[in-house]
């Protein structure tokens, strides 16, 4: 929706913070009218506060003309200016009345963005939300009217007056008029002074903390809410105009952390209407253009420099084959190309898969990584396109990977040779099984069974959850390492983490239940049991601002750190809440949804508080500013060059 940028006489549209607090046009007219009125009273009283009486005034007084008539005569010289002010004020009132009617109509139609614009709280095209309302809006809230708006005021007694009164009656009228106007002036002055004082104080407080959130260095970040009265509803204030297609993001400056603080506790502080959803979708579509352009840029470079290779090195432009030389980037991106509508690029990649993809690397590959990236990529492409080429390649890979499940316990080894079928666990982890790896393969193999009609893939991978279900602790929280001893399995690592080594097994619990059509209840039961343990033991709050995070637990004690990988829990908890068999309104679902929102806000802060705008691998929740980034918490690019993350 395109809003007019024309300024209104009686409204202040969005002003930048640098402009400070300025009275709007109507306030100026009110003050001018007050000055004219005070001058009028001074003339009536024969006062010299505003200059010496004129000769004309003296002549009238010597002729014993009534003070009221004298005052009327003496103000004729300024009548044109006053009439002009009154006319402008009337025009302003007419415009404001029309805007107010349009505002009410916009609110009734759910068009909050237009309503905010009419109220003067948004500047079209300005990314900064302006929270300050015009002075007349504040006065109107208290039912205070300016002189020309008052109904049945003292001026009504003179309507139709012929001026034919006795001297005593005229004197009474004069005295009554003077007293009344004095009182009116004092009331108006006090009201305006009081309201402006409150207005400035409130605005200063908002500007101090910022609607975008308090500074990271501030001890206390207040919960900021901007309310628009319509019953008890509160309307979303952050909606912006769609982003132009030619917007240059190279000039974009990150706005920093601490913003949108009203979301930090997982609350939903605003009323979301259908109209607002439409506006949000429109904004998202404008952003989608730039996301697509980013993908086109990346794919163009990959195609030109590394097509068919596992990875493109972003700095040197070289290639690497870290994942067995099976075109991992290409295969993993197939579903993204399809979903983004890049069908030409998809077909080119499809031809490479058909003509060049071979699952016969010279060495061992990670069973977990190859399953979720290569097997998952091929199956996703098949599910979206229906092209049998992808299913054929997926089954070829699945058969080779499944040989890692040929162990005494049925748990899959971490590494396998796709040519020989030999497999083993990693020496760097003491030969133990890793929880996150063994519990994050089932979705792919179950779908492969569904697509091929061969149930062996699902049966082998489901064996993992048979074991986990049998050994799930009372609190639902698994240790991250398991060891095979004869025909039995036991946990060897006491550490519980929703970061590396443990994370995605919990994610697959809820997704496996959904994949089964909500029929295999054991996955849902395991999920709910684990989430109870999470809330009872791992959910923590930071200091001083109360950011929600999931601590690690080791040897019965909490380690107050959180991996970036744990941010998947925001989405997983939300999925669990919206699909809860007890209903979304149940206490369990509401608990999970609130934590999901609060946790996602913390993850947003992990990005926003970094000068690079990129979250580190993990943060430590110690100190006086919620969390800190340890010196060894780096972001790694694909050329294995660690980049230290700097904070504000």
Physical arrangement of strands within the biggest beta sheet: 3-4-5
Cα end-to-end separation:
36 Å
Low-confidence stretches are: 1-79, 121-165, 203-233, 636-648
Sheet bearing the most strands, described?
3 strands, antiparallel
Q: Can you count the helices? A: 20
Would you count the extended β strands for me? 16
Question: What does this entry look like structurally?
Answer:
The structure is a single chain. The chain has 20 helices and 16 strands. The strands form seven sheets. The chain has a three-stranded antiparallel beta sheet with strand order 3-4-5. Strands 6-7-8 form a three-stranded antiparallel beta sheet. The radius of gyration is 36 Å and the shape is globular.
Question: Any chance you could write out the topology, listing elements then pairs?
Answer:
Layout: H1 25-45, H2 55-62, H3 67-74, H4 79-108, H5 112-119, H6 135-141, H7 167-209, H8 274-306, E1 311-312, E2 319-320, H9 328-332, H10 334-339, H11 343-356, E3 364-366, H12 367-385, H13 388-401, E4 415-417, E5 423-424, E6 433-434, H14 435-438, H15 442-452, H16 456-471, E7 481-485, E8 488-493, H17 503-515, H18 521-538, E9 539-541, E10 548-550, E11 552-554, E12 557-559, E13 561-563, H19 568-578, H20 587-608, E14 618-620, E15 634-636, E16 642-644
Antiparallel strand pairs: 1-2, 3-4, 4-5, 6-7, 7-8, 9-10, 11-12, 13-14, 15-16
Helix pairs in contact: 1-3, 1-4, 1-7, 2-3, 4-5, 12-13, 13-15, 15-16, 17-18, 17-19, 19-20
């Amino acid at each position: 929706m395109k809003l007019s940028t024309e300024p209104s006489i009686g409204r202040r549209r969005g002003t930048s913070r640098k402009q400070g607090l300025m009275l709007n046009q109507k306030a100026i007219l009110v003050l001018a009218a007050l000055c004219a009125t005070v001058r009028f009273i001074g003339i009536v009283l024969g006062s010299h506060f505003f200059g010496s009486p004129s000769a004309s005034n003296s002549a009238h007084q010597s002729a014993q003309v009534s003070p009221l008539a004298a005052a009327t005569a003496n103000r004729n010289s300024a009548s044109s200016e006053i009439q002009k002010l009154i006319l402008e004020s009337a025009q302003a009132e007419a415009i404001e009345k029309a805007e107010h009617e349009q505002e009410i109509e916009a609110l009734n139609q759910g068009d909050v963005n237009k309503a905010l614009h009419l109220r003067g709280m948004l500047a079209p095209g300005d990314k900064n939300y302006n929270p300050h309302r015009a002075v007349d809006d504040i006065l109107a809230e208290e039912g205070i009217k300016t002189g020309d708006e008052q109904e049945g005021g003292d001026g009504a007694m003179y309507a139709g007056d012929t001026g034919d009164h006795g001297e005593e009656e005229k004197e009474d009228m004069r005295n009554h008029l003077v007293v009344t106007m004095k009182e009116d002036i004092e009331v108006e002055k006090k009201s305006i002074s009081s309201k402006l004082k409150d207005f400035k104080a409130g605005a200063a407080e908002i500007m101090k903390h910022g609607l975008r959130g308090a500074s990271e260095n501030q001890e206390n970040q207040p919960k900021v809410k901007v309310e628009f009265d319509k019953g008890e509803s509160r309307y979303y204030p952050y909606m912006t105009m769609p982003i132009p297609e030619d917007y240059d993001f190279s000039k974009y400056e990150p706005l920093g952390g601490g913003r949108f603080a009203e979301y930090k506790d997982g609350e939903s502080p605003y009323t979301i209407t259908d109209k607002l959803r439409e506006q949000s979708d429109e904004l998202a579509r404008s952003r989608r253009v730039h996301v697509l352009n980013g993908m086109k840029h990346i794919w163009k470079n990959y195609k030109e420099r590394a097509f068919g290779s596992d990875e493109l090195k972003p700095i040197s432009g070289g290639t690497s084959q870290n994942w067995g030389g099976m075109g991992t980037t290409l295969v993993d991106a197939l579903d993204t190309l399809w979903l983004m509508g890049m069908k030409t690029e998809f077909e080119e990649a499809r031809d490479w898969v058909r003509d060049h993809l071979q699952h016969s690397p010279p060495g061992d590959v990670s069973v977990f990584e190859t399953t979720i990236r290569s097997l998952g990529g091929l199956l996703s492409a098949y599910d979206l396109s229906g092209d049998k080429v992808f299913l054929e390649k997926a089954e070829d890979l699945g058969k080779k990977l499944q040989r890692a499940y040929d162990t005494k316990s049925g748990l899959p080894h971490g590494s396998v040779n796709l040519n020989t079928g030999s497999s083993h666990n990693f020496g760097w982890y003491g030969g133990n099984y890793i929880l996150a790896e063994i519990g994050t393969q089932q979705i792919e193999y179950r779908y492969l069974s569904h697509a091929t009609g061969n149930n062996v893939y699902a049966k082998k991978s489901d064996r993992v959850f048979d074991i986990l279900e049998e050994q799930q602790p009372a609190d639902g929280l698994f240790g991250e390492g398991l060891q095979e001893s004869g025909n039995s399995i036991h946990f060897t690592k006491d550490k519980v983490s929703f970061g590396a080594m443990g994370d995605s097994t919990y994610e697959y619990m809820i997704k496996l239940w959904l994949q089964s059509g909500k029929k295999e209840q054991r996955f849902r039961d395991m999920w709910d049991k684990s989430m109870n343990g999470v809330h009872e033991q791992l959910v923590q709050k930071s200091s001083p601002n109360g950011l929600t995070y999931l601590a690690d637990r080791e040897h019965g004690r909490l380690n107050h750190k959180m991996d970036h990988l744990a941010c998947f829990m925001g989405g997983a908890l939300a999925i669990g809440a919206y699909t809860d068999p007890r209903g979304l309104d149940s206490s369990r679902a509401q608990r999970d949804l609130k934590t999901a929102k609060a946790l996602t806000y913390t993850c947003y802060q992990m990005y926003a508080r970094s000068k690079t705008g990129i979250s580190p691998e993990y943060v430590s929740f110690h100190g006086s500013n919620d969390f800190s980034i340890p010196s060894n918490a780096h972001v790694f690019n694909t050329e294995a060059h660690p980049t230290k993350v700097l904070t504000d």
